[in-house]
Amino acid sequence: MNVGSNMNVDTCYRLAEEKAENYFKTLHKQVLEKNYVNVLMKDFQSWKHNHIHNYSILSNLSRKKQPDYKDYHRYIDWLEITGKLDNYLNRSISYIFMRDLGKHLESTETQVRIREIIENLKTQLTASSEEKTEIYSVPGLYRWAQKEGIESSFIWLMSKLKKVSENIPDGMDSTHAQRKLIKIIAGVLMHAIEEMGQEISQVDRTNRLDEAIRLGYCYGLTYPFIDDLLDSTVLNENEKREYSNLIRTTLIHRSVPQLEWAGSNEELMVFIHAELQEAFEYIKSKQQHNQIETFFDQSYVFFHSQEVDRIKDLTNPSYTNEELYIPVILKSSSSRLIARSVIGAPEDEGFDNRTFFYGIYNQLADDFADMFDDLQDGAVTPYTYYIKYHNKRSDLINPFELYWAVISNLIHNVYNSDQNACEVILDRAINGLKRCQERIGKTKYKEVMQLFASGNPAFNQVIQKMVRKADDVDFFDKLLRDQIITTLKNEREEQETFMNLVKSVRSEINEILPIPEKEVFPLLKEQIVDAANYSLESDGKRLRPIITYVLGVNEYGLSKAALLPLIKSLEYMHTASLIFDDLPSQDNALTRRGYPTLHHVYNTAIAELTGLFLTQRAIEEQTLLDEFDTKSVLSLIQYSARVVGEMCRGQAMDLNTQGERLSLEQLNMMCFYKTGIAFEASLVMPAILAQAKESEIISLKKFAKHAGIAFQIKDDLLDVEGESTILGKSVGKDMENNRSTFVTILGEEEAKKAMWDHYCLATETLKEVPNKTSFFKHLLNYMVNRDS
Fold first, then answer.
1. Where are the alpha helices (DSSP H) in 225-265?
2. What gap in Å lies between CA 655 and CA 176, rounded to an integer?
3. CB of 289 within 8 A of CB of 190?
4. Which residue among 468, 521, 540, 554 sits deepest, i.e. has the most Cβ atoms within 10 Å of its Cβ?
5. Cβ neighbourhood burial of 180 (10 Å; 0-12, 13-18, 19+)
6. Where do the H-state alpha helices sit in 127-201?
């Protein structure tokens, strides 16, 4: 389809369109002549032997009840117990090899690879709870990245995904956008892995995986920020035309035009333009000279076919069958062709043909599942158009019939009647109908079938029997998709709840912190109390007392009123440590929490006395914990005294080693004493008051150690990368003071890796802490993703 460096877009699209027209004519003929019916009825007969079983009453009673397939962990366990996991994974991975990788299942090499992947996946899925790491979780993915030596790529990707998430505007489904972006990245990664072969060196493998992750993100970014954005109501019609023209110009001239945008969406579009331009330039830079034409051809076909579909109006009764189906064939095939060409893989005629014919199979299944949402949105798909106009247009092709014609063509003409391919394709088709029936209900489903399947009653009767009675037709990618969607939604809701909780608790804490003045010396101003309140009133994060509050009140069920002295004590102690830290003899800081440091507002002597005053005030507050067991309070005060002593040791280490290059082990130790132990205290103190088991306190200490180090590394990174206006303090102080930090010792990239490693270690420790994982998880996410 190459048409030269100055791409003639009309010729490019027309060549693709001609191929799609020929394919459509073949399908149309099958629908008109009903050729697919007899062919598939034979396939159904052999297929039913594997999926429809007549169980006796006794065997039904003895069978272990199947859990809801959406219950991820229980369902996997059930599959393993019942001996179904191997077949489940086999059809799932086989389907992915057909759909995403364009493979033919009759290939011995493909079967070997599928078996390898099944064994690896099965090992992960059936691991014990102590050994198991969720393959889709952030810690699980980072551990995989470590194994492959691509931690920097993962960290880069996490930063990018965070930015995308923060910039998904109202009016777009952020969960859907994130899931689709992740799916595209995974697809590109799969292509890269399958292209490598067994003989590749680890260095080359690492480089290719790194490149695939970045290319996957760059290509995937077009879904939320081009396709989904243009489908949404975020932009008005004029803005959509302007934006579409910008994309079209980019693909024609292979250069991103300068953005000229004004209006309410300007800030959003500036961000999107910058991200897409960076992505476009990266993809272009990685294309081989002899393959770049293919990439741009496919990209233009994909974009233009989407545009042709997008501008259709459901109120227009005159679209031809060709106008309805040919763009669907083009966009569904070209999107998967790009996933391969974007990594610069060599042209493969077998892959190209299989992918071209396969695409509409998926697209028609997706459109069937989404038809009512599409109808509500006024979107034109073969299904919505047929629903609206089938009574007025006898010439309209029934998309459900075309779907089965596609299936017949795939099984017997594309995959040469291969039994594995037949099994997987029919499994997927019946699974899609079963899921639809479950989602919309039996009554609505029956109405749908009466509309779409009434032309072939005998054929439909067989299909509906398969839908009712067939088992073992579910797929891992669907399970994983549901789990990811649920996880993304839950995490978004939990994150919002977490941030609201932090905000609410911080506000409560701020109200109780000010220290009242005592009129001991009525003729003299009480400088120490004023100075203490000046330090306390600044906009601190209050992270440590917030942790204590949430853990004590929400998790251990302690009385909030009874716990208030401890909450004040922790913040007084922390604020005292900051006052000392800022002194000229130590960091000599100019600002703290966005305000001048205390010794600049008053003087060094008052700052020193205020720090001492707050330390003693913290101890006094602890003695007011009179609603708790006396031995527990005494144990808490003893523990608190040790913590203060260890913090002093840590700060002394820091001061004594200025100008020295510490080892990582020394730095970790110093960091724990300076920062980690304060986090430990905020967790351990409420646990002591709640009389938690010693084993739980040990686990909390392990969590605090790694969380505290991760927090400190983030602080060190912010001192280099952050903005002083956001941080509320000067940046670059560590370098100015010639201090050893994780950044100065390891460098920025290795420091980020160390931070994420401690993030994972802290997360893995949560397995030992009962019933508190949600708060801790989001606390960790806040620690490593914060900007201040």
1. 229-231, 237-253
2. 50
3. no
4. 540
5. middle
6. 138-148, 151-166, 174-196
Place of tokens 């080359």: 204
**Residue 594: exposed, middle, or buried by beta-carbon count in 10 A (0-12, 13-18, 19+)?**
middle
- What is the DSSP secondary structure assignment for residue 44, as one 8-state letter? H
- pLDDT of residue 548 exceeding 50, the answer is yes
Phi, psi of 592 (to 5 degrees): -150, 125
Interhelix angle for 694-721 vs 677-689, to 10°? Answer: 150
CA–CA dist 721, 26 (Å, integer): 59
Bridge partners of residue 432, in order along the sequence: none
- Three-state secondary structure string covering 360-381: HHHHHHHHHHCHHHHHHHCCCC
CA 560 – CA 576 distance, rounded (Å): 24
CB 414 within 8 A of CB 351: no
Three-class secondary structure of residue 337 per DSSP? helix
How far apart, in whole angstroms, are the C-alpha atoms of residue 675 and residue 667?
12
Give mean pLDDT, residues 605-616: 90
SS3 label, residue 351: helix
Spatial separation of the C-alpha atoms in residues 451 and 380, rounded to whole Å: 18
How many CA atoms lie within 13 Å of 164's alpha carbon, on the beta-carbon side? 30
At 163-201, the pLDDT tens digits run: 998 899 988 988 888 889 999 999 999 999 998 877 899
What is the spatial distance between Cα 127 and Cα 133, in angstroms, rounded to a whole number?
9
**Residue 538 and residue 578 in contact, taking contact as beta carbons nearer than 8 Å:** no
The whole model's pTM is what? 0.87
**What does the block give as tokens for 118?**
């099944």
User: How would residue 735 be classed by pLDDT, with cut points 50, 70 and 90?
Assistant: low
Q: Which residues contact 674 (CB under 8 A, 6 or more apart)?
A: 647, 650, 651, 653, 654, 712
Per residue in 378-412, pLDDT (tens digit) is: 999 999 999 999 999 999 999 999 999 999 999 99
- Cβ atoms within 10 Å, residue 725: 9
Residues 383 and 374: beta-carbon distance below 8 Å: yes
- Identify the pLDDT of residue 744: 87
Q: How many CB atoms lie within 10 A of CB 50?
A: 15
Tokens of 100: 């995403």
- Residue 213 contacts residue 157 (beta carbons within 8 Å): yes
Cβ pair 612, 579 in contact under 8 A: no
* 325, 402 Cβ separation under 8 angstroms: yes
Q: Report the alpha-carbon distance of residue 778 to residue 569 in Å, rounded.
A: 24
Query: Which residues, other chains included, contact 392 with Cβ-Cβ below 8 Å and sequence gap of 6+?
Result: 317
The residue type found at 722 is G
Secondary structure (3-state) at 399:
helix
Measured from the Cβ of residue 372, the count of other Cβ atoms closer than 10 Å reads 15
Closest by CA to 563, choosing from 507, 647, 636, is 636
Distance of CA 524 to the CA centre of its chain: 59
Cα–Cα dist 243/303, whole Å: 12
Round to whole Å and give the CA distance between 219 and 337: 12
State the CB neighbour count (10 A cutoff) for residue 630.
9
Residue 98: how many CA atoms within 13 Å on its side-chain side?
26
Per residue in 196-224, is it b (16+ CB within 10 Å) or e — as a string? eeeeeeeeebeebbbbbbbbbbbbbbbbb
